[in-house]
Amino acid sequence: MDPAAPRSPFLRSRGLLIPKHPQITTGRLRAALRSDSYERKECDAVARVVQEGDVVLELGGGIGYMSTLLSVTRRVARVTSYEANPALIPYIRSVHAANGVTNVDLHNALLSPEPGPPVAFHVRRNLLASSMDRDSDPDSITRTVQVPRQPLAEALAQVCPTVLVCDIEGAEADLLPAGDWSGLRVAVIELHPQWIGQAGVQAVFDAMHRAGLSYYPKASEAKVVTFRKGW
Protein backbone atom coordinates (compact mmCIF):
# COMPACT_ATOMS: atom_id res chain seq x y z
CA MET A 1 0.00 0.00 0.00
CA ASP A 2 1.21 3.47 -0.88
CA PRO A 3 1.96 5.18 2.47
CA ALA A 4 0.93 8.48 0.91
CA ALA A 5 -2.50 7.19 -0.13
CA PRO A 6 -5.40 8.42 2.02
CA ARG A 7 -6.79 5.86 4.45
CA SER A 8 -10.27 4.60 3.81
CA PRO A 9 -12.91 5.83 6.27
CA PHE A 10 -14.47 2.36 6.13
CA LEU A 11 -13.85 -1.18 7.27
CA ARG A 12 -15.05 -3.96 4.99
CA SER A 13 -17.03 -6.86 6.43
CA ARG A 14 -19.00 -9.48 4.48
CA GLY A 15 -19.05 -7.11 1.53
CA LEU A 16 -20.44 -4.24 3.62
CA LEU A 17 -18.86 -0.84 4.25
CA ILE A 18 -18.63 -0.13 7.99
CA PRO A 19 -17.70 3.47 8.87
CA LYS A 20 -14.78 3.79 11.24
CA HIS A 21 -15.66 5.37 14.58
CA PRO A 22 -13.21 6.17 17.41
CA GLN A 23 -15.56 4.91 20.13
CA ILE A 24 -17.20 1.98 18.33
CA THR A 25 -15.01 0.25 15.73
CA THR A 26 -12.09 -0.45 18.04
CA GLY A 27 -10.23 -3.44 19.44
CA ARG A 28 -11.96 -6.79 19.23
CA LEU A 29 -14.95 -5.37 17.38
CA ARG A 30 -12.70 -4.01 14.63
CA ALA A 31 -10.89 -7.35 14.38
CA ALA A 32 -14.18 -9.27 14.25
CA LEU A 33 -15.51 -7.02 11.50
CA ARG A 34 -12.37 -7.37 9.41
CA SER A 35 -12.33 -11.17 9.76
CA ASP A 36 -16.07 -11.49 8.98
CA SER A 37 -16.57 -13.13 12.36
CA TYR A 38 -18.73 -10.37 13.87
CA GLU A 39 -22.15 -11.85 14.80
CA ARG A 40 -21.18 -14.91 12.75
CA LYS A 41 -23.81 -17.24 14.17
CA GLU A 42 -26.65 -14.81 13.51
CA CYS A 43 -25.30 -14.01 10.04
CA ASP A 44 -25.06 -17.69 9.15
CA ALA A 45 -28.60 -18.26 10.41
CA VAL A 46 -30.22 -15.47 8.40
CA ALA A 47 -28.28 -16.54 5.30
CA ARG A 48 -29.99 -19.93 5.58
CA VAL A 49 -33.55 -18.89 6.27
CA VAL A 50 -34.30 -15.27 5.27
CA GLN A 51 -35.71 -14.82 1.79
CA GLU A 52 -35.96 -11.94 -0.65
CA GLY A 53 -39.09 -9.93 0.07
CA ASP A 54 -39.33 -10.82 3.76
CA VAL A 55 -40.52 -8.21 6.25
CA VAL A 56 -38.19 -8.20 9.27
CA LEU A 57 -38.69 -7.03 12.84
CA GLU A 58 -35.29 -6.57 14.48
CA LEU A 59 -35.16 -6.29 18.26
CA GLY A 60 -31.75 -4.92 19.21
CA GLY A 61 -30.34 -2.88 16.34
CA GLY A 62 -26.76 -2.93 17.63
CA ILE A 63 -24.41 -1.08 15.29
CA GLY A 64 -26.72 -1.51 12.30
CA TYR A 65 -24.78 -4.46 10.93
CA MET A 66 -27.60 -7.00 10.78
CA SER A 67 -30.20 -4.65 9.31
CA THR A 68 -27.69 -3.65 6.63
CA LEU A 69 -26.79 -7.25 5.88
CA LEU A 70 -30.47 -8.18 5.59
CA SER A 71 -31.13 -5.31 3.21
CA VAL A 72 -28.04 -5.71 1.01
CA THR A 73 -27.47 -9.47 0.85
CA ARG A 74 -30.92 -10.94 1.57
CA ARG A 75 -32.85 -8.19 -0.26
CA VAL A 76 -35.65 -8.10 2.25
CA ALA A 77 -38.58 -5.78 1.58
CA ARG A 78 -38.27 -3.90 4.85
CA VAL A 79 -36.61 -3.97 8.26
CA THR A 80 -38.15 -2.31 11.31
CA SER A 81 -35.41 -2.06 13.91
CA TYR A 82 -35.65 -1.15 17.61
CA GLU A 83 -32.51 -0.06 19.46
CA ALA A 84 -32.60 1.27 23.05
CA ASN A 85 -29.16 2.92 23.03
CA PRO A 86 -29.64 6.50 21.77
CA ALA A 87 -25.90 6.97 21.28
CA LEU A 88 -25.88 4.30 18.58
CA ILE A 89 -28.69 5.74 16.45
CA PRO A 90 -26.53 8.21 14.44
CA TYR A 91 -23.93 5.51 13.84
CA ILE A 92 -26.54 3.00 12.67
CA ARG A 93 -27.80 5.60 10.20
CA SER A 94 -24.25 6.13 8.94
CA VAL A 95 -23.86 2.38 8.33
CA HIS A 96 -27.11 2.36 6.36
CA ALA A 97 -26.06 5.42 4.35
CA ALA A 98 -22.63 3.96 3.52
CA ASN A 99 -24.32 0.92 2.00
CA GLY A 100 -27.19 2.68 0.24
CA VAL A 101 -29.78 1.16 2.57
CA THR A 102 -33.11 2.99 2.49
CA ASN A 103 -35.60 0.33 3.61
CA VAL A 104 -34.87 0.29 7.36
CA ASP A 105 -37.28 2.01 9.76
CA LEU A 106 -35.16 2.69 12.84
CA HIS A 107 -36.66 3.42 16.27
CA ASN A 108 -34.85 4.53 19.42
CA ALA A 109 -37.33 2.80 21.73
CA LEU A 110 -37.95 -0.27 23.84
CA LEU A 111 -40.69 -2.73 23.06
CA SER A 112 -42.51 -3.86 26.20
CA PRO A 113 -45.33 -6.28 27.00
CA GLU A 114 -47.50 -3.39 28.23
CA PRO A 115 -47.53 0.41 27.87
CA GLY A 116 -45.43 2.23 30.40
CA PRO A 117 -43.41 5.38 31.11
CA PRO A 118 -40.04 6.01 29.47
CA VAL A 119 -37.04 4.15 30.84
CA ALA A 120 -33.79 5.76 32.03
CA PHE A 121 -30.89 4.78 29.79
CA HIS A 122 -27.30 5.54 30.81
CA VAL A 123 -24.84 6.46 28.06
CA ARG A 124 -21.22 5.66 28.89
CA ARG A 125 -17.87 6.79 27.50
CA ASN A 126 -17.66 3.35 25.91
CA LEU A 127 -20.85 3.68 23.87
CA LEU A 128 -21.25 -0.07 23.52
CA ALA A 129 -21.29 -0.45 27.32
CA SER A 130 -24.27 1.89 27.71
CA SER A 131 -27.28 0.30 29.37
CA MET A 132 -30.29 0.71 31.65
CA ASP A 133 -28.17 -0.56 34.55
CA ARG A 134 -26.83 2.46 36.37
CA ASP A 135 -24.93 0.49 39.00
CA SER A 136 -22.50 -1.19 36.61
CA ASP A 137 -19.62 1.30 36.35
CA PRO A 138 -21.57 4.46 37.29
CA ASP A 139 -18.43 6.64 37.01
CA SER A 140 -18.31 6.05 33.23
CA ILE A 141 -21.79 7.50 32.62
CA THR A 142 -21.71 10.66 30.51
CA ARG A 143 -25.45 11.32 30.34
CA THR A 144 -28.78 9.74 31.16
CA VAL A 145 -31.71 9.95 28.75
CA GLN A 146 -35.30 8.77 28.78
CA VAL A 147 -36.06 6.10 26.17
CA PRO A 148 -39.74 5.68 25.21
CA ARG A 149 -41.54 2.36 25.42
CA GLN A 150 -43.85 0.97 22.75
CA PRO A 151 -46.26 -1.90 23.43
CA LEU A 152 -45.24 -5.05 21.59
CA ALA A 153 -48.77 -5.74 20.29
CA GLU A 154 -48.89 -2.29 18.71
CA ALA A 155 -45.55 -2.81 16.94
CA LEU A 156 -46.56 -6.23 15.64
CA ALA A 157 -49.82 -4.85 14.25
CA GLN A 158 -47.95 -2.05 12.47
CA VAL A 159 -45.07 -4.11 11.08
CA CYS A 160 -46.72 -7.49 10.32
CA PRO A 161 -43.32 -9.21 10.20
CA THR A 162 -42.56 -12.49 8.49
CA VAL A 163 -39.14 -12.70 10.19
CA LEU A 164 -37.99 -11.90 13.73
CA VAL A 165 -34.32 -11.25 14.49
CA CYS A 166 -33.82 -10.77 18.23
CA ASP A 167 -30.78 -9.99 20.39
CA ILE A 168 -31.94 -8.04 23.44
CA GLU A 169 -29.52 -9.13 26.17
CA GLY A 170 -31.87 -11.27 28.25
CA ALA A 171 -35.12 -9.34 27.81
CA GLU A 172 -36.28 -12.06 25.41
CA ALA A 173 -37.57 -14.19 28.30
CA ASP A 174 -40.17 -11.59 29.30
CA LEU A 175 -40.92 -9.93 25.95
CA LEU A 176 -41.30 -12.80 23.50
CA PRO A 177 -43.93 -14.77 25.49
CA ALA A 178 -46.09 -11.61 25.52
CA GLY A 179 -46.41 -11.44 21.72
CA ASP A 180 -48.56 -13.08 19.05
CA TRP A 181 -45.93 -14.38 16.65
CA SER A 182 -48.26 -16.50 14.54
CA GLY A 183 -47.59 -14.37 11.46
CA LEU A 184 -43.90 -15.27 11.44
CA ARG A 185 -42.29 -17.63 8.98
CA VAL A 186 -38.89 -17.56 10.72
CA ALA A 187 -37.36 -16.37 14.00
CA VAL A 188 -33.63 -16.06 14.74
CA ILE A 189 -33.07 -15.43 18.46
CA GLU A 190 -29.90 -15.08 20.49
CA LEU A 191 -30.59 -16.53 23.92
CA HIS A 192 -28.82 -15.36 27.09
CA PRO A 193 -29.14 -18.33 29.45
CA GLN A 194 -26.55 -16.83 31.79
CA TRP A 195 -29.20 -14.23 32.69
CA ILE A 196 -32.57 -15.84 31.96
CA GLY A 197 -31.82 -19.39 33.15
CA GLN A 198 -33.47 -22.58 31.98
CA ALA A 199 -36.95 -21.22 32.73
CA GLY A 200 -36.35 -18.23 30.48
CA VAL A 201 -35.02 -20.40 27.66
CA GLN A 202 -38.08 -22.64 27.97
CA ALA A 203 -40.37 -19.59 27.89
CA VAL A 204 -38.86 -18.52 24.55
CA PHE A 205 -39.21 -22.00 23.05
CA ASP A 206 -42.80 -22.22 24.27
CA ALA A 207 -43.64 -18.84 22.75
CA MET A 208 -42.32 -19.90 19.36
CA HIS A 209 -44.09 -23.25 19.51
CA ARG A 210 -47.40 -21.53 20.33
CA ALA A 211 -46.90 -19.49 17.16
CA GLY A 212 -46.56 -22.67 15.11
CA LEU A 213 -42.79 -22.49 14.66
CA SER A 214 -40.46 -25.43 15.24
CA TYR A 215 -36.82 -25.41 16.30
CA TYR A 216 -34.66 -25.60 13.17
CA PRO A 217 -31.27 -27.11 14.05
CA LYS A 218 -29.67 -26.57 10.61
CA ALA A 219 -29.71 -22.81 11.21
CA SER A 220 -29.00 -22.90 14.96
CA GLU A 221 -25.68 -22.84 16.77
CA ALA A 222 -25.01 -22.60 20.50
CA LYS A 223 -27.03 -19.68 21.92
CA VAL A 224 -28.39 -18.61 18.52
CA VAL A 225 -31.58 -20.58 17.92
CA THR A 226 -33.72 -20.54 14.80
CA PHE A 227 -37.38 -21.43 14.52
CA ARG A 228 -39.15 -22.07 11.24
CA LYS A 229 -42.70 -22.73 10.12
CA GLY A 230 -43.54 -25.58 7.80
CA TRP A 231 -40.29 -27.46 7.27
Question: What does this molecule look like?
Answer:
It contains 7 helices and 13 strands. It has helices at residues 27-34, 40-49, 65-73, 89-98, 152-159, 172-175, 193-210; strands spanning 10-13, 16-19, 55-59, 78-82, 104-107, 110-112, 119-124, 141-147, 149-151, 163-166, 186-190, 214-215, 224-228. Helix 2 packs parallel to helix 3 (65-73). The model has no long low-confidence stretch (mean pLDDT 95). It has a domain at 38-115 and 146-228: 3-Layer(aba) Sandwich (Rossmann fold), CATH 3.40.50.150. It is 29% helix and 25% strand. The strands form 4 sheets. A 7-stranded mixed beta sheet has the order 5-4-3-10-11-13-12, with helices on both faces. Strands 1-2 form a two-stranded antiparallel sheet. It has a two-stranded parallel ribbon with strand order 6-9. The chain has 231 residues and is of the alpha/beta class. The termini are far apart. Helix 6 links the parallel strand 10 and strand 11. It comes from Salipiger marinus.
Summarize the structure.
The protein has helices at 27-34, 40-49, 65-73, 89-98, 152-159, 172-175, 193-210; strands at residues 10-13, 16-19, 55-59, 78-82, 104-107, 110-112, 119-124, 141-147, 149-151, 163-166, 186-190, 214-215, 224-228. The chain is α/β, with parallel strands linked by helices and 231 residues long.
